[in-house]
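Supplementary Methods. Inverse-folding protocol.

Structures were first reduced to a C-alpha cell string of length 181. This string, shown here, constituted the complete conditioning input.
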C-alpha cells in the first residue's frame, strides 16, 4: 500500500504531471493561526529536479500559502488520482516564494505558461515523497479547465490586478505578511 520514494523517478513524474488538480497545505507557526488547504489547477505544476518541484501561484482572494511559506517554509502538496489507479502522492518539503521582482523569477517563469494573473512561483525542496492507496477516493472524469479566472483577470487589467493584490494579498487572515509588491 504505502511507499516512501527517495526521489521523483520517471514513473512517478508521469503520474504527477498527468493530474489536472493538486492540493497545497500550509500552516502558520502560531497554534491559534488558521491552517490552509488550497486546490490548484491550470497548467501550474512542474518538476524541476529529482527532489525539487514548483508551481505557479495566481492571484486569489487570499494569500495564506505565500504568508505561511514566507514565515516558516513548511508545505505539502497532495495529488489524488481521480482517473486510473487509486493512488495518492504527498510531497512534503520546504518552500520558498519567488515573486516577479526577484532575480530568478524570469528563469523559473520560462517553465510555465504566461498567465496575466501570476503573482508568484512557489519552489519546494522535497524532504519526503510518499505514495499511498487512494481506495477511498472516488473516480471523477476531467471535463476541462474553467475560463472564469482568465476572464476575471482580463477584465481587471494590469492596473486592476495590481490594486486587487494590494488590497487582498498584502496580509494573511492571521496578519502575516503576504506579497511585497
Amino acid at each position: 500500500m504505502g511507499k516512501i520514494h527517495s526521489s521523483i523517478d520517471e514513473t512517478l513524474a508521469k503520474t504527477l504531471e498527468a493530474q489536472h488538480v493538486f492540493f497545497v497545505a500550509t500552516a502558520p507557526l502560531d497554534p491559534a493561526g488558521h491552517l490552509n488547504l488550497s486546490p490548484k489547477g491550470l497548467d501550474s505544476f512542474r518538476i524541476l529536479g529529482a527532489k525539487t518541484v514548483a508551481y505557479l501561484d495566481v492571484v486569489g482572494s487570499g494569500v495564506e500559502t505565500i504568508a505561511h511559506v514566507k514565515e516558516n517554509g513548511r508545505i505539502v502538496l497532495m495529488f489524488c488520482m481521480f482517473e486510473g489507479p487509486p493512488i495518492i502522492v504527498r510531497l512534503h518539503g520546504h518552500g520558498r516564494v519567488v515573486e516577479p521582482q526577484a532575480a530568478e523569477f524570469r528563469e523559473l517563469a520560462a517553465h510555465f505558461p504566461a498567465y496575466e494573473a501570476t503573482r508568484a512561483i512557489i519552489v519546494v525542496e522535497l524532504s519526503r515523497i510518499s505514495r499511498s492507496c487512494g481506495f477511498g477516493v472516488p473516480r471523477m472524469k476531467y471535463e476541462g479547465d474553467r475560463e472564469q479566472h482568465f476572464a476575471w483577470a482580463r477584465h481587471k487589467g494590469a492596473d486592476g490586478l495590481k490594486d486587487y493584490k494590494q488590497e487582498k494579498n498584502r496580509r494573511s487572515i492571521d496578519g502575516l505578511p503576504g506579497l511585497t509588491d
